UniProtKB/TrEMBL annotation:
Protein name, UniProt field: ATP-binding cassette domain-containing protein
InterPro entries: AAA+_ATPase, ABC_carbohydrate_import_ATPase, ABC_transporter-like_ATP-bd, ABC_transporter-like_CS, P-loop_NTPase
Species of provenance: Actinomarinicola tropica
Any Pfam family matching the protein: ABC_tran
PANTHER family xref list: CARBOHYDRATE TRANSPORT ATP-BINDING PROTEIN MG119-RELATED, GALACTOFURANOSE TRANSPORTER ATP-BINDING PROTEIN YTFR
């Protein structure tokens, strides 16, 4: 007799004010498989999983677990049905041990007393069974990111989960930790655990999943096996059209220099040289790309141009003005826009509404202020316009920034900076951590702004992005610019050899 699927969702629809997050979704997950769900940021993946975990209730549709229709009113109901969820942002108490975090809310008792010995034995048994080597008595604050994720997985296994939902589980992991996670997932699968894996990293999905379901604009569009599709085909299913590229070849470069950096040197507090005699020019209508392995001075270069760090030597000119010793605010007011590499730490106030986030860095200017006072009406109107113009998918300007998907957060930041009409834009990893649809939107905005005369300093780890968007390409290595390359002819392999120093000496200007 054929076993019923572990999970069967039929006709799931979920509406929020102004937004249909899920529309008539159908999903079947077989027992003991790794089933990936992919889609653009904001496509409805996380909402669907929150419904399956009982955090939200569908407006329409049915849920069946192991062939039995159930009504999930809360995560407690989901846990009772054998469903566990590991969220992208971990929910652990740093000042408690692994054991205390795992049993928190489900403390074992022997009579009136806590059965700590029994809990420790159970955790060790689970760790051994699923290949999760971890000390139950170590404080969570002493663990790395990958180890913390294993603690989260142990928490749900401890509660008897047979169906495990992982929401963007590799988003915060380094490559070695990703490999370790995939080994853990393979062991869980061998032990009969069903895994639902949400991601937009298509190469990872193709390597780990047994089945892949694509969600686009809130509905399921296709379920495929990894052997039947390429990453590019999967991406095209996600966006619903041919996959865009960053390719830009029509020159819009003018003769007018917007940024000139001369003999710039930056030193650390201990005297180490972080930026060594760097110089370059960016003209209006030009994208100057800087390639380099992270940690070779890119961050310090940005901070020096923004006025966050003082240079030890050299000059920085914006247009016809020497801004070397200007404050960051004066530089921003003079026309420097900034898309930061870490949108959460540097780009957004996550708990604040969108209209406050759109003001950041521009709050002393119209339409955000009238004299010394904040103009809430003006700020909200500008935010509404930015949401519409940059396709930020949200119910409105009063939603907190943390409620947006990563791609929509990034589009809001891009909109904020572009709407301020900068003359120079510093774009640091502008498409990091976002899906192909949001990536294409950011590329198109950069191309349009370049055509309108914007000067762009582009720093990225995505070599295709650098080669495709840049008019001029420099390589930074150990704080020095070691090569100037032609994006029209250089290959990713050649660029990589300069970035690692293999060809640095022969190409140094």
């Amino acid at each position: 007799m054929t076993q019923p699927p572990a999970v069967e969702l039929r006709g799931i629809t979920k509406r929020f004010p102004g937004v249909v997050a899920n529309r008539d979704i159908n999903l079947t997950v077989a027992r003991g498989e790794i089933h990936a769900i992919v889609g653009e940021n904001g496509a409805g993946k996380s909402t669907l999983m929150k419904i399956l975990y009982g955090m939200q209730r569908p407006d329409e549709g049915t849920i069946a677990i192991d062939g039995q229709h159930i009504d999930l009113r809360s995560p407690t109901d989901a846990i009772g049905a054998g469903i566990g969820m590991v969220h992208q942002h971990f929910m652990l108490a740093d000042n408690l041990t692994v054991l205390e975090n795992v049993v928190l809310g489900d403390e074992p008792r022997r009579g009136p007393r806590l059965d700590i010995a029994g809990a420790r034995s159970r955790i060790n048994e689970l760790a051994d069974t699923y290949g999760f080597p971890i000390d139950p008595d170590v404080l969570v604050e002493q663990l790395g990111v990958g180890e913390r994720q294993r603690v989260e997985i142990l928490k749900v296994l401890y509660r008897g989960a047979r169906i495990l939902i992982l929401d963007e589980p590799t988003a915060v992991l380094v490559p070695q930790e990703v490999d370790e996670l995939f080994r853990n997932l393979a062991e869980l699968k061998r032990e009969g655990v069903t895994i639902i894996f949400i991601s937009h990293k298509l190469d990872e999905v193709l390597s780990v999943a047994d089945t892949i379901t694509v969600i686009r604009a809130g509905t399921t569009v296709r379920t495929v096996e990894p052997s039947s599709v390429t990453a590019r085909q999967l991406a095209e299913l996600m966006v619903g059209s041919e996959l865009p590229t960053p390719e830009t070849r029509d020159s819009t470069v003018t003769d007018q220099v917007e940024l000139e950096v001369r003999e710039l040197t930056v030193r650390a507090d201990d005297g180490r040289t972080l930026i060594d005699d760097v110089g370059f020019r960016i003209r209006r209508g030009e994208v100057l790309g800087i390639a380099g392995v992270e940690g070779n001075g890119q961050h310090e270069l940005i901070n020096a141009i923004l006025g966050i760090d003082d240079p030890a030597a050299g000059t920085i000119r914006l247009g016809d003005q020497d801004i070397t010793h200007w404050s960051t605010r004066d530089r921003r007011d003079a026309g420097i826009g900034y898309i930061p590499q870490d949108r959460h730490r540097e780009g957004l106030l996550l708990a604040s509404p969108l209209w406050e986030n759109v003001m950041l860095g521009h709050q002393a200017r119209a339409p955000y202020s009238k004299g010394p006072w904040i103009d809430r009406k003006g700020a909200r109107q500008r935010t509404i316009r930015t949401i519409a113009d940059y396709d930020v998918r949200t119910p409105g300007p009063d939603v907190p920034a943390y409620a947006l998907s990563g791609g929509n957060q990034q589009k809001l930041i891009v909109g904020r900076e572009m709407e301020a009409s900068p003359t120079l834009l510093i774009a640091a990893h502008p498409t990091r951590g976002i899906d192909v649809g949001a990536q294409a939107s950011v590329w198109e905005r950069l191309r349009q702004a370049r055509a309108d005369g914007l000067a762009v300093l582009l720093i990225s780890a995505d070599l295709e992005e650098l080669i495709g968007l840049s008019d001029t390409l420099h390589v930074i290595y150990r704080g020095r610019l070691v090569a100037e390359l032609d994006p029209a002819t250089v290959t990713a392999e050649e660029l990589g050899s300069y970035m690692t120093g293999a060809r640095a000496e022969e190409a140094r200007p």
